[in-house]
Amino acid sequence: MPALRRFASAALLAAAACSALAQEALPPGVAQALAAARIPAAGVAVVVHEVGAPRASLSLNAATPMNPASVMKLVTTLAGLELLGPAYRWRTDAYAAGALREDVLQGDLVLKGYGDPRLTFESFWLLLRALRDRGLREVRGDLVLDRSYFEPAPHDAARFDAEPLRPYNVGPDALLLSFKAVRFQFVPDAERGKVIVSAQPRPEPLEVVSVLRLSNGPCGDWREKLRADYRFAGAAAGRMRALFTGEYAASCGERNWNVSLLSHPEFVGGVFRQLWPELGGALAGGVREGRVPEEAKLVYSHESAPLAEIVRDINKFSNNVMARQLYLTLGAEAARPPASNIKSFAAVRAWLAQKGLEMPELVIENGSGLSRIERISAHNLAALLLAAFRSPVMPEFVSSLPLVAVDGTLRKRMKGDAVAGQAHLKSGTLAEVRAWGGYVLDRAGRRHALAMIVNHPAAGQAQPALEALLRWVYEQG
């Protein structure tokens, strides 16, 4: 009997070893695509795990900490949905610091932000419209901006990739307005032979000047054919000018270009000065930062869309600044304001521990994935996805992810492929990083959690391998 037991144990160990080897072997199509891109196995981590199954069906370098790029938003948004609840809303409050006599405020108007990730230009117009409806017309004092809900922190928009005007590099702010971005719209006017350039919003200090030539050639890379010069017209004047030169093809039709200009306070103050007079209002004083005085009276409180709607914008369109706003809110709600990344990381750590998800390798810098140092393993990313599928907020979470070939950042991927419309995936893209994380419904109707992360100088060539894995899961399950 002892010999028989030893034989049985050896057989079990051999079977387990064979199973492990099978798990480590990538599907041929994936391996071939990686080889063609000259990406070694050491630069790739993969886990595929059917929902409800006892173990993963495919696993490679599962425990290796990897940079997931924007796939890190899965951690931030699931934490937000579970900790704050899908009905959570942000406020932006307006206070009167002084007596309101008839329609004149004898004092300051104070705007206090609580980190609304989607206080759009239209929402801000509604907020100011509500103040007019409540009888406020003229502000004899200043417009005071209370941004104290978030801890003051230096933000260098050029640090990540030397592109400080790109909207994805905008830093978080308690009074984030319209993503702190100006949308320049280019409209060709063939009859007059000119290009009309407008800005929305157009903060009061901003002047738009266009001397673009209208051409008849192909559109092509239209941005390369024009030059934009943003500069202050003079420190004393305090005005900024956006000058557009070069040429613009009529065949381009109408195009938009989003640019981040001005600081957060300058932007909010400038948009207020744009809209308030249009609504019949007047501001006698200036714009400054401060706190809500104790004696101030709440005039109006604007509420954001619910979090269930916000996370769709974050994940479908991979909005970095919105993800950072949500991440900071987690810290403020868990440990009292002012919010900070340190408080938020502690809140996420505690939440994961409560769910039984130990992630010793986890590194979160800002919650958006726009980072060189954020890390998670494919194993724990898949574990998070499996836990999310058991969560009460599963429908809100899954529906926030782009549907391959249908919408969001993956709307143009795998069009006409058999797996089109069958996978909800969050993608991640940085220099030397490509990643996918989400769910695949296979041909037999079984759902799988999928995590694949590539960290390698040739990661930009990894798309065929990612797509090959997706096809394999769909076809083979």
Structural class: alpha/beta
Shape: globular
Round the mean pLDDT to the nearest integer and report it: 93
Number of helices: 11
CATH architecture of the largest domain: 3-Layer(aba) Sandwich
**What's the structural domain tally?**
3
User: How many angstroms does the end-to-end distance come to?
Assistant: 40 Å
Strand segment tally: 21
Uncertain segments: 1-23
Amount of beta strand: 25-35%
Instruction: Report on the biggest sheet.
Output: 7 strands, mixed
- The share of residues in helices is 25-40%
Radius of gyration: 26 Å
> What is the CATH T-level topology of the largest domain?
Beta-lactamase
Look at the structure and give the CATH class of the largest domain: Alpha Beta
Name the CATH superfamily classification of the largest domain.
DD-peptidase/beta-lactamase superfamily
Keywords:
477 residues; alpha/beta; Beta-lactamase; D-tyrosyl-trna(Tyr) Deacylase, Chain: A; seven-stranded mixed beta sheet; 11 helices
Short description:
This protein has 477 residues and is α/β, with parallel strands linked by helices. It is built from eleven helices and 21 strands.
Please explain how this structure is put together.
This protein has helices at residues 2-24, 28-36, 73-84, 121-133, 264-278, 307-316, 320-335, 341-354, 378-389, 394-399, 463-476, and strands spanning 44-50, 58-60, 65-66, 91-101, 104-113, 138-139, 143-146, 182-189, 194-200, 206-210, 213-215, 226-234, 239-249, 255-259, 282-283, 287-289, 297-303, 376-377, 423-430, 433-441, 447-455. The chain has 477 residues and is an alpha/beta fold. The chain folds into 3 domains: 17-87 and 308-476, Beta-lactamase (3-Layer(aba) Sandwich); 91-178 and 263-305, D-tyrosyl-trna(Tyr) Deacylase, Chain: A (3-Layer(bba) Sandwich); 182-259, no CATH class. Strands 4, 5, 6, 7, 15, 16 and 17 form a 7-stranded mixed sheet that branches. Strands 2-1-21-20-19 form a 5-stranded antiparallel sheet, with helices on both faces. Strands 10, 11, 12 and 13 form a 4-stranded mixed sheet that branches. Helix 2 packs antiparallel against helix 11 (463-476). The two termini are 40 Å apart. Residues 1-23 have low confidence and may be disordered.
